[in-house]
Design a protein that fits this description.
- By secondary structure, the protein is mainly β.
- The chain is 3% helix and 45% strand.
- It contains three helices and 105 strands.
Length: 1302
């Protein structure tokens, strides 16, 4: 066991004894004392030793503290070095902090360095660096240019381009200028001037072609720096891209369009200048200018004249080169249409008819815009029928005269004009046509009962040209003929109630309309009806305004509305509590189904409570409860009384009213008056407590009253019965409060207490103190009463125990004594206590000062020490100031590395106290880690990275991701506000190589960038391979279920779906089963042709495309398989008595493809196992004889699964082996005989239970007349048209018994 809670530095002896039920043994002790202290070891090795800088003769090393200190503080680090090729290590120095500057080395030599940590025990194992070569420091090149150049410069064509840059580095770097991957050579107008510190690229008389991104590459042995400077040269735009498209030409105008110029000259195109001229002339005429549209309609042309059009683009630099069109003649390109077909007439009425015709065979090259129709009396003058062209191939001609004959002709029209007239139609004569009406619309049975049926319908769409005179309804009883119901006359309305139906008889109905011609076509109601009452149990739904709770004010009406749905109409009962409500003077009960209403006029407070609406009929009952709250003013306050009466005040208190008026009490109004004065004075009008202090005048009598107020107003007042006299009662004062010892010295005790809450009615109070030494009597500490609430007992004897007590005195008497506990008089030694004045962690920004202050207590004066992360070295930025009751810590110019735990320790002779403060210095985040590029496609990729190891002390707000093409090395920002540590980069150019860099950003700024490895935008994936051949799992005559496995090769991308195809066995073409891809690997294919054979194959698809098809499955015919059903499910005993058992089961999960038509229940007595049968299976004689008796082999011993079978079995002492043929023959005969016997035994004794009940169709059956003492087995089988299925058997035999708790 482990002994815990030992005191460090104390020596201990241990002993142990054994104990059992008879007692404890003698103890055995340790031979020597053991001192409680942590075991000490050498510290662990320093971590992560590496050089941070190197020069010709100097090296700077840094490392981290060891993981363990060995139980003792680390006192320093021993630094050593070794020249390459030497075996001995030279000692350099011992330092106290994890860094060192080593000097005096030789240039050009290689050194190794190692560091060991040291504590009180000794040195640790060393941590060694890699070899370091002392050589001149290399500084990578730096390029500085004007900020305007980085943003890009814009110059005019013909001016000078000047790109200066300053470069620094050790050794001096060299500069190289390039554009579009080619180095710029100074020649002609191009000049490059470079020295050790700067370089300038100049281009005189620049051209538009000089625009681009100029790459400056500065390099030296330490590295390379690349900078891109964008230059844009402005010039007039190029000519628009041709040719000029002539979209439409007429004799008056032409419509043209063109494409914008490929080069806009470096600034947006502000408009186009369009001009035209006749082909035979040289003079251009203006058409349009200033518009940026690339489509224009040129009007005011002369018919038959040939024109040429030119277009020039314009920007802020001027007008560019022209684009001319081909010569175009201003004329139509089509003719007038041919004549329409011969008109024909239809739908003739007394004053109108419809004229129809066919389209012309020739439209003249232009779309037909309409048709003009003309009419005339036979042999008369033609008159136009329509003023505007008709778009359709028929028109309704109105305004004709009955009995006149009319002829018609038609003209077609397009843009070119009208066609010739069509052939003249045959003469047509308008006349009235009256027919029987059409059938009524949507006849249906709206409602029915055992005697009546309500029919409704809509009037016919066609009345046959004569008003509908009425309707005839016919009825057909099941098996009978149609009979007219309304023989007395026609039904005028579109609804009728058929009466006199016979209950439980089935009827059909049909309706016919009648006009002056006769009876129209009948229309039958789609459904038949059986005459019986509809039974619907009541359902109650309350109005939204009183669904659960209703609130009204006193005097207002209470309206509770409910909607009751039931057939037949239910009985309605309204109740409040146990009382049934009936119609009275203020109460009105309304019943107009489905609406029921309770109305109470001029509500009183007594009307609040729960109201119950109850509805019941033969089908059931329902009820709803509504809580009604009647708002009123509150009632009388209770138990009004006055207490603590003095000459200038008293306390008035009361209790809440019994009835708050239905809403919360908001406040109370308290008033007072003298008995001789009738006017009440206000004490408080907004009191929320049930007690108030009233100011009084000494010697006067007062009466008080109070009332409660809620949102309805103030309630009735309640008054005190007897007046209260304002005088001071003088009583004994209360006891002093919080009597305590605040300080103890060598011969004194300092006592303090607090004035009592109750002075007894007299302000003149004093205090008496007494002390007692041990068991002696109490002795006063002073002669007269004292008025202060403190006292110093300065005549105490050192190292003696005292008790002290105090009491309050006034004119009314003395209070009870208040005592202290035992106080030992001695000089006090107080352990140090620190109170760090810091709530949580201290957060400062980098560069600010860190200030921590701590309160200090302790006797004698403690010594204070500040330490951060166990560092003991001096820091010139740190200053500590310590006083008698405080200690202040100040660190100036804070750094991110100053983040950590600052420990303050106060120590004196009484002990020590340790506190700590957490400081977080905020700075920009460090670099992100492990930048990875994945999911590379032709135009996208995914860039992911790990969070910075140092987030700068605050949460990283976002990330900035930039990209550049390696051939251009121009960085562009892709996203500046990423909140995740990954980004899906899109819009990449296929085949280009890219580099990405990421910077973390927090509220302090942006951290350093980290670049990814170059990646090329191209696809990494292929189409998926073919899946396995599909299988058909379920077959029907019109549908099949096809399943398949995924392909072994998904092409590198996850499968997005599948295409399932099918074909008939003798067909050649494969047909897709769906228009879209299938997400699952299973599909039910429907709409198959019965008895046809089908084959299926499947294709897989991913983002790359569709893969090769699988091998087709075998041909399968579409037909329904029918077989015997499966066993019923959930077979169990659901009830039992002493003489019967009730069994229950569920339908079989598989019905064999045909409906279940019945069940058969069987039972038998539980068979008892015969001992001789069991023995026969265990002895060797049970094996059938395949050889003579002397060769019979005993039954082999059963081996556990997994063990090897014996090569040969032996019998008794002879150990004779059987031959394999004899053994196989004997085993086969035995197995066959045993299986047959087992089958017969399994079927033995079963008898059918449901013999007299016919076919059992329910899933429950009771077997009566059973013996309580007999165990029974039961089984049930299902039957369909094929036959009986496999039975389901109870898990164990049961006996009939009474079920308790039934």
């Amino acid at each position: 066991m482990m002994a815990k809670h030992l005191m460090e530095g104390t020596s201990y002896l241990f002993r142990v004894a054994a104990e059992n039920q008879f007692g404890r043994s003698e103890y055995i002790e340790t031979t020597k004392a053991v001192k409680a202290m942590n075991p000490l070891f050498p510290p662990g090795p320093p971590k992560d030793l590496h050089h941070v800088d190197v020069d010709k003769t100097e090296v700077w090393l840094v490392w981290n503290w060891p993981d363990r200190n060995g139980g003792s503080d680390i006192t320093g680090f021993l630094v050593e070095y070794q020249e390459e090729g030497e075996r001995e290590w030279d000692e350099w120095n011992t330092v106290s902090i994890p860094e060192s500057h080593i000097t005096g080395l030789e240039e050009g030599k290689t050194y190794r360095f190692r560091v060991r940590a040291e504590n009180a025990i000794g040195l640790s194992r060393p941590d060694t660096t890699v070899p370091v070569l002392c050589q001149e420091k290399l500084v990578a090149p730096i390029v500085e240019v004007d900020a305007k150049l980085i943003e890009g410069i814009i110059v005019k064509c013909g001016s000078t381009i000047r790109l200066p840059a300053i470069m620094r580095g050790i050794p001096a770097p060299t500069a190289k200028w390039s554009i579009d991957g080619a180095e710029i050579v100074p020649e002609g107008t191009v000049k490059i001037e470079s020295d050790n510190y700067s370089t300038v690229l100049s281009i005189n008389d620049c051209l538009r072609s000089d625009s681009g991104s100029y790459i400056l590459t500065v390099s030296n042995p330490a590295g390379t720096k690349t900078l891109a400077l964008n230059v844009t040269v402005l010039d007039v735009p190029a000519a628009p891209i041709g040719p000029v498209n002539i979209l439409e030409v007429t004799p008056e105008y032409m419509l043209i369009d063109w494409r914008p110029p490929k080069d806009d000259g470096g600034s947006p195109v502000t408009g186009y200048v369009v001009e035209k001229r006749e082909a035979k002339k040289e003079t251009w005429g203006g058409v349009s200018s200033g518009s940026t549209a690339t489509k224009l309609k040129i009007s005011r042309l002369q018919s038959g004249v040939e024109y040429v059009v030119r277009i020039r683009a314009e920007n802020k630099m001027g007008i560019g080169a022209p684009l001319e069109s081909a010569p175009t003649v201003a004329q139509h390109t089509f003719e007038a249409p041919g004549h329409p077909g011969k008109p024909n007439t239809s739908d003739i009425a007394e004053d109108a008819l419809t004229v129809g015709w066919t389209m012309p065979l020739f439209d003249g090259g232009s779309q037909i815009t309409g048709y003009i129709v003309e009419r005339r009396h036979k042999g008369g003058k033609w008159i136009r029928v329509n003023t505007t062209p008709c778009k359709d191939l028929r028109i309704r001609v109105l305004g004709l005269f009955e009995g006149n004959e009319y002829e018609f002709r038609v003209f077609a029209e397009n843009i070119a004009g009208f066609s010739g007239p069509s052939a003249i139609s045959d003469p047509a004569k308008p006349c009235r046509q009256i027919t029987a009406p059409g059938p009524p619309v949507n006849p249906r049975i709206k409602d029915y009962s055992k005697e009546n049926a309500d029919l409704v319908w809509i009037k016919p769409n066609k009345d046959g040209g004569s008003p509908i005179m009425g309707y005839i309804i016919e009825m057909q009883k099941a098996g009978g003929e149609w009979a007219i119901i309304n023989k007395d006359g026609h039904i005028k309305q579109c609804a009728y109630r058929v009466k006199g139906l016979e209950e439980h008889s089935e009827y059909r109905f049909r309706v016919s309309a009648v006009n002056m011609i006769g009876v129209g076509e009948p229309r039958e109601c789609p459904e038949s009806v059986v005459a019986k009452d509809i039974m619907i149990p009541p359902e109650i739904e309350m109005d939204a305004r009183s669904r659960e709770r209703l609130t009204v004010r006193v005097g207002h009406n209470i309206n509770i509305i409910g909607y009751v749905k039931a057939r037949p109409d239910p009985e309605i009962i309204w109740k409040k509590g146990d009382d049934v409500l009936e119609t009275a003077k203020r109460t009105t009960l309304t019943k107009n189904f489905p609406v029921v209403q309770l109305r109470i006029k001029e509500a009183t407070r007594a009307d609040h409570g729960k109201y119950v609406l109850k509805a019941n009929n033969y089908s059931g009952e329902a009820q709803a409860t509504i809580t009604v709250n009647v708002l009123d003013r509150p009632g009388h306050c209770q138990n009004l009384k006055t207490t603590y009466v003095t000459r200038d005040s008293c306390m008035v208190s009361w209790e809440n009213p019994v009835d708050n008026g239905g809403s919360e009490i908001t406040n109370y109004i308290v008033e007072c008056r003298e008995p001789s004065v009738r006017l009440w004075s206000m004490i408080s009008s907004d009191c929320t407590n049930r007690m108030v202090k009233a100011k009084l005048m000494e010697g006067h009598e007062y009466l008080f009253r109070v009332c409660a107020v809620n949102k309805c107003g103030p309630g009735p007042t309640v008054e005190t019965k007897q007046p209260t006299l304002a005088i001071d009662p003088i009583n004994k004062p209360g006891e002093p409060e919080n009597f305590r010892v605040t300080d103890v010295g060598k011969n004194f005790v300092f006592l303090k207490w607090r004035r009592p809450d109750y002075d007894g009615g007299s302000p003149n109070i004093g205090y008496a103190l007494e002390s007692k030494l041990g068991a002696e009597e109490w002795v006063p500490l002073h002669e007269d009463l004292i008025t202060n609430t403190f006292f110093m007992a300065d005549k105490c004897v050192e190292k003696q125990t005292y008790q002290f007590r105090v009491q309050t005195c006034n004119e009314g008497g003395e209070s009870d004594w208040v005592k202290t506990g035992d106080v030992l008089v001695r000089e006090e030694i107080q352990k140090p206590v620190l109170d760090i004045k810091l709530a949580g962690a201290l957060v400062v920004k980098a560069g600010e000062s860190i200030r921590i202050e701590a309160g200090l207590r302790g006797m004698p004066q403690p010594e204070v020490k500040w330490v951060k992360d166990k560092a003991t070295g001096d820091n010139p930025r740190v200053s500590v100031e310590t006083g008698t009751d405080y200690s202040k810590f100040l660190m100036t110019k804070s750094k991110r590395t100053d983040t950590g735990k600052y420990v303050i320790t106060a120590t004196n002779s009484a002990g020590s106290f340790t506190g700590y403060a957490i400081v977080n210095v905020l700075d920009v985040p460090g670099p992100v880690r492990d930048v990875k590029v994945s999911g590379i496609g032709v135009d996208k990729c995914r860039v992911a990275w790990d969070l910075p190891e140092d987030e700068g002390g605050c949460e990283v707000d976002s990330y900035i991701i930039e990209k550049c093409e390696t051939r251009r090395m121009v960085w562009s920002t892709y996203s500046a506000s990423l909140v995740t540590n990954y980004c899906n980069v899109t819009r990449l150019v296929e085949g280009n190589e890219y580099i990405f860099r990421i910077r973390a950003e927090n509220k302090m700024g942006t951290g350093p960038a980290v670049e990814s490895k170059p990646v090329t935008a191209r696809t990494q994936f292929n189409r998926p391979g073919p899946p396995e051949s599909p299988e058909i799992t379920k077959i029907g005559k019109e549908e099949m279920t096809v399943v398949w496995a995924p392909p072994e090769n998904d092409g590198g991308k996850s499968i997005t779906g599948y295409i399932l195809e099918r074909k008939e066995k003798r067909a050649v073409k494969w047909v897709p089963c769906t228009k879209s891809t299938i997400s699952e690997r299973r599909m039910k294919v429907s709409n198959l042709i019965p008895n046809h054979e089908y084959q299926f194959r499947v294709k897989a698809e991913n983002e790359v495309g569709l893969g090769e098809p699988s091998k087709p499955c075998r041909p399968v015919a579409a037909k329904d398989p029918i077989e015997a059903p499966g066993p019923p499910g959930s077979f169990k005993v659901i009830d039992s008595t002493k003489t019967s058992i009730t069994l229950g089961w569920a339908k079989p999960i598989y019905d064999g493809g045909a409906p279940i038509i019945g069940y058969m229940v069987e039972m038998r007595d539980k068979p008892e196992l015969k001992p001789e049968v069991v023995e026969a299976e265990a002895v060797p004689e049970a094996v059938p004889k395949a050889k003579p008796a002397e060769e019979v082999k005993p039954v082999a011993e059963t081996k556990p699964e997994g063990e090897a079978k014996p090569e040969a079995a032996v019998t008794g002492e002879g150990e004779e082996q059987y031959e394999e043929d004899a053994e196989d023959e004997a085993a086969a005969v035995a197995a066959k005989a045993k299986a047959e016997a087992k089958r017969k035994k399994k079927e033995e004794g079963w008898k059918k239970c449901n013999t007299g009940a016919g076919v059992l169709v329910h899933t429950e059956f009771t077997i009566p007349n059973l013996n309580e003492k007999q165990m029974y087995e039961f089984r049930v089988s299902a039957q369909n048209q094929v036959g009986w299925g496999r039975p389901a058997t109870l898990k164990e035999a049961v006996n009939p018994k009474e079920v308790l708790g039934k």
